[in-house]
Amino acid sequence: MSVEALVLGIETSCDETGVGIVRGRELLADAVASSVEEHARFGGVVPEVASRAHLEAMTPTVERALATAGVRLSQVDAIAVTAGPGLVGALLVGLAAAKAYALALDVPLYGVNHLAAHVAVDTLEHGPLPEPVVALLVSGGHSSLLRIDELTGTPVQLGRTLDDAAGEAFDKVARVLGLPFPGGPHIDRMARTGDPGFVDFPRGLSGPRDRVEHPYDFSFSGLKTAVARWVAVRQRDGQPVPVADVAAAFQEAVVDVLTTKAVAACREQGVEHLLIGGGVAANSRLRVLAEQRAAAAGIRLRVPRPGLCTDNGAMVAALGVEMVTRGVAPSPLEIGVDSSLPVSQTLVGGAR
Ligand code: KG4
Ligand code: ZN
After folding, report:
1. Tens of pLDDT along 132-151?
2. What does the domain layout of the chain look like in residue ranges?
3. Confidence (pTM)
4. 29, 208, 292, 343 - which has most CB atoms within 10 Å?
5. What CATH topology corresponds to 6-121+312-348?
6. Which amino acid residue places its CA nearest to atom 8 of ligand 1?
């Protein structure tokens, strides 16, 4: 199959039903139906609600993507789908749909890793991925630092979070501050008018000993607790909580640690390129600080535009195109979902 493979990608690992259509490196359609509003009043994603919403949105979202792309299903060369990690019921809806399309169209199926797709999406905007690249993946469910020598191969995990994911910390702190779910975009917006130096919140795993024992690992749960305590003390004393300032100071603590460790990983691994992906990569302060610190260290930074950072189907299609183009053997139709698919497994069930 040529570089111009037409791939339909399906993403249903959390609360977004995403269908993307990519031809070569050209993004033809990126249709997303989100059930986020149905979860907002619960303060987090409710798995059963998400599964039902995927079921209802699946076919209309595929049809919308096809119409936007101006292609017919019969033209699709391969189907790529998120097989994990994520919510098991939600993943099952996407995989069942993907299998049905692959079978009906008689085209290969690629059951891919959601995290690798967060990396692959950048190829749609900035062209072929430099290899090796250090990838900082920060989302609602994951925070890890990887060295990727080959996009469709096995990444080397340099570090990961020992407790909360970065996005989870944003969501939990937003809740403490009375901001809606999901909290990341709200904290980002509030922080723009706040003072990042208002409180010096703790930088997790950044002490001298941590730098030796956990150079690339993260911890955000202590930070979250520190913010919650700070707010509780203010409330107990009957003082107003300066939401913008607390949001800015919290955000600064997160992005400071993320960028420091990511740049250190590049330097120590001798890798010139850094990629940031996942929902938290949409954060405006993270983008600015990463750019400054990468430039100061002589590292080239790649971050997809915010709309491609949060979950979508285009990222899955982009990884599918890489698989097809590099001649990777597809997944058998019998594959299942894996809610805790390890980051080392880029493709489920495929033989190389
Ligand atoms: O990658 P993603 O869409 O879904 C997962 O794979 O988890 O990431 C969602 C996470 C949420 O925690 C959300 O609050 C966070 O990304 N997020 C942000 C921003 N936009 C989304 N966090 C900080 N700043 C943002 N602008
Ligand atoms: Zn994600």
Report:
1. 999 999 999 999 999 999 99
2. 6-121+312-348, 129-306
3. 0.96
4. 29
5. Nucleotidyltransferase; domain 5 (3.30.420)
6. 279
